[in-house]
Design goal:
Length: about 270
C-alpha cells in the first residue's frame, strides 16, 4: 500500500484525519494521525484489532493497516465518502422517516456487535457515525471504548449524549451508558433537534425526564406525532435515568429488527 495524501478531513484532539489514495489500486482510505501517545490510540488499536479477528461488520469502520512516520502513529481505515451524520443533518435536519429508522437500526447493529466482543463505545454521537458511498452508516472512533465487563468512573463522551450517571461522575456500567446515548441519538434522528443540554437537574428537560419520563417531555413539546406508540415505548426504555431499568443492548437489537408483513413484501419498521 502506497498512500498519497489528498486532503485534510478533520482536526482531532490528538492529531488529524486525512483522506488518502493508494496509488497502486486507486482505493481511498481515511488515515488517522496521532501526534502523541495517549489512551485513545491504545484503545482504538485494541478495539480495531479485536474487530479484525471477526468477519467485517457492515456498520463498524474497519482498520486496514497502520504505520509510523515522523514520530506519529497512523491508523488506516476504510473511507466513508458521505462524511458524518452531523454534517448530513446540518444540511438537512429532518431526514425521511424510513431513512432515520434505517440509520438507527444500522447503528444499533454496530453497537450490539461491539458489545458482543466485549467493548462499549462511550462516545456515540452524530459526529462518530459515518456514511459510506452506498448510504450505509458505520460507527467509528473507538478511542474512548472500554470493557463491558468492568465498571468505570471516567467522565467521557459528548455532554449532549452522556448518560446521567456518567455526567455525575458516578461508577457506571459502560454498556448501559451506551444505551442512553442511543436513546438520545434516536430522538435527534426522529426530530432533528437535540433533547438535552446536560443530563442533570440544571436542565429543565432533564428534570421532566427524571421525574415524569421522556413521554411527558415529548408531550410538552408537541412532538407526539413524530413517534409511533411502539417507538415512544422503546425510547422510554432507553432513557431511564436509573441504568438498571434501561433496556439491555441485546433486547434493543432484537426489538428493532424489521419484520416482513404478510400484507406486504416491504419490511415494517417498529
Amino acid at each position: 500500500m502506497v498512500l498519497e495524501l489528498n486532503a485534510l478531513i478533520a482536526n482531532t484532539t490528538f492529531g488529524h484525519v486525512f483522506r488518502c489514495t493508494d496509488t497502486t489500486t486507486g482505493v481511498e482510505y481515511a488515515v488517522k494521525q496521532y501526534t502523541q501517545e495517549c489512551y485513545e490510540v491504545s484503545a482504538e488499536l485494541q478495539v480495531s484489532k479485536a474487530l479484525m479477528q471477526q468477519a467485517p461488520h457492515p456498520h463498524l469502520v474497519q482498520l486496514v493497516g497502520q504505520y509510523e512516520r515522523n514520530c506519529c502513529k497512523h491508523l488506516v481505515f476504510e473511507y466513508c465518502a458521505q462524511g458524518d451524520l452531523y454534517e448530513l443533518l446540518t444540511d438537512k435536519p429532518m431526514l425521511p422517516r424510513n431513512q432515520s429508522l434505517m440509520y438507527f437500526r444500522q447503528i444499533v447493529s454496530g453497537v450490539h456487535h461491539l458489545h458482543k466482543i466485549g467493548y462499549a463505545h462511550r462516545d456515540i454521537s452524530l459526529e462518530n457515525i459515518l456514511v459510506d458511498a452506498n448510504g450505509d452508516c458505520k460507527l467509528c472512533d473507538f478511542g474512548l471504548a472500554a470493557s463491558t465487563s468492568e465498571l468505570s468512573d471516567a467522565t467521557v463522551g459528548k455532554v449532549f449524549y452522556m448518560a446521567p450517571e456518567v455526567f455525575a461522575g458516578e461508577e457506571y456500567n459502560p454498556a448501559a451508558a451506551d444505551v442512553w446515548s442511543l436513546g438520545i441519538l434516536f430522538f435527534i434522528l426522529m426530530t432533528g433537534v437535540p433533547m438535552l443540554n446536560t443530563p442533570s437537574d440544571d436542565d429543565g428537560g432533564y428534570r421532566i425526564v427524571a421525574r415524569q419520563g421522556v413521554k411527558a417531555l415529548i408531550k410538552l413539546w408537541n412532538m407526539e406525532n413524530q413517534f409511533t406508540k411502539t417507538q415512544l415505548q422503546l425510547l422510554d426504555r432507553m432513557l431511564q435515568v436509573n441504568p438498571k431499568k434501561r433496556i439491555k443492548m441485546h433486547q434493543l437489537h432484537a426489538k428493532i429488527q424489521p419484520k416482513v408483513s404478510w400484507r406486504s413484501k416491504w419490511a415494517q419498521w417498529f
